Amino acid sequence: MRAETLRPVSLSQHKRAAERLILAMLLIALAAALWTLRAVVLTIFAAVLLALLLSEIAKTLSARLGLPHRPSLAVAVIIALSVPAGAAWLFGREVSAQWQLIVQAIPQAIDRFVALLDTIGAGDALRNAVRTALDPDAVVRRVGSVASSSLGAMIDLLLVIFGGIYLAAQPRLYRTGLVKLIPPRSCAMAGDVLDNVGAALRRWLLGQLAAMALVGLLTGIGLALLGSPSALALGVLAAVLEFIPYIGPILSAVPAIAVALVQSPEQALWVTGLYLAIQQAENHLIQPLIQQRAVDIPPALLLFGVVAMGTLFGVQGVVLAAPLAVLLYVLVKQLYVREALHTPTPLPTEQ
To answer: Which CA distances in Å does 247 have to 197, 299, 304?
Structure first.
């Protein structure tokens, strides 16, 4: 039996194997670094969303007024910051007074709810839960945690604002820098992916802002017609929390129902029905109309995206779950379905 001769391994093969090993190690190190800095990555992503909004406003101003990019961006920043500041100045006193009414009404609502539970023998369990929650040591710990979280949130907000302004001022600089990190043979595809992701996020953001405004307006008007106190504050809360899919509308309904429960159980039922009606209108009318011109994400994907992002990243992940889902949706469609599987599929920006 003749011995089989071994083929010598060339130097180029050794070099390719070493390059692949180094690349794999670099990718693992990059993934570990991103996971360690995940809070910073989410802050950067929020700044990108703000930059897209500022760029869209600046583009509109430039087209209407003929201004160069920098002056248009300066006006866009003034508009973006003055709108919430102006709303706070116009309605701040009224909203603050209404929030005080809400805070005062919640203990009464709890007492009334406990009384209702007493009729079925479940009131003691809620009393024990409230007593545990109001334990002095627990309250002190909670206040300290809230103060620390509030300070961190303020710092993150400032980083998002200034980061968004810097990104909107020189978008091509950062896009070019990201593309240069990609191997030359894939630079064109990387640029195309970045453009598609940016366009999809821009369309989603504008659609979401429209949905937030409509939901807040409908909520405020509906509560006012029902004679519910604090209609303005609760409408603003509904608009803000509409940014968070599925969970946001539930969170906005809780204080409204609590305030209504102080008036009467019948009022609480009417307010609950109002929120359910607005939610149905949003699901079957507002969102479909907006998504025709925005990004249509499958509802199941968005639902599980909220759960996944909340599990991975906590509160920040829940707040940014929808735009993160848009980002992953575009990446999977273009990089995996189109490029890896070679299966034709329309991107959100092509629909």
So the answer is: 25, 13, 12
Cα separation, 49 vs 208, whole angstroms:
12
**223 CB-near residues (< 8 Å, 6+ apart):** 230, 231, 234, 235, 256, 271, 274
Residue by residue, DSSP assigns 130-164 as HHHHT-HHHHHHHHHHHHHHHHHHHHHHHHHHHHH
Of 248, 257, 252, whose CA–CA distance to 235 is shortest? 252
Put simply, whether the predicted model's pTM sits higher than 0.85 gets the answer no
Alpha-helical runs (H) found in the chain? 11-36, 38-65, 69-118, 123-133, 136-169, 171-180, 187-225, 231-241, 247-263, 265-281, 287-291, 299-313, 315-319, 321-331
Phi, psi of 345 (to 5 degrees): -155, 140
d(CA 5, CA 2): 9
| DSSP codes, 210-255 | HHHHHHHHHHHHHHHHTT-TTHHHHHHHHHHHTTSTTHHHHHHHHH
Q: Give average pLDDT by consecutive 10-residue segment, the chain, 351 residues.
A: 51 71 82 86 93 91 84 89 71 63 68 67 61 55 58 86 93 90 83 90 90 92 88 86 87 85 84 92 79 75 86 88 90 88 81 64
How far is Cα 163 from Cα 171, in angstroms, rounded to an integer? 12
DSSP state of 339: I
Q: How far apart are CA 164 and CA 201, in angstroms?
A: 14
Determine contact, residues 216/243, Cβ cutoff 8 Å.
Answer: no
Cα–Cα distance measured from residue 81 to residue 87, given in angstroms and rounded to the nearest whole number: 10
Task: Assess contact for 238 and 252: CB atoms under 8 A.
Answer: yes
Whether 189 and 224 have beta carbons less than 8 Å apart is answered as no
166 dihedral zone (left: phi>0; alpha: psi -120 to 50; beta): alpha
Give the C-alpha separation, 51 to 168, whole Å: 5
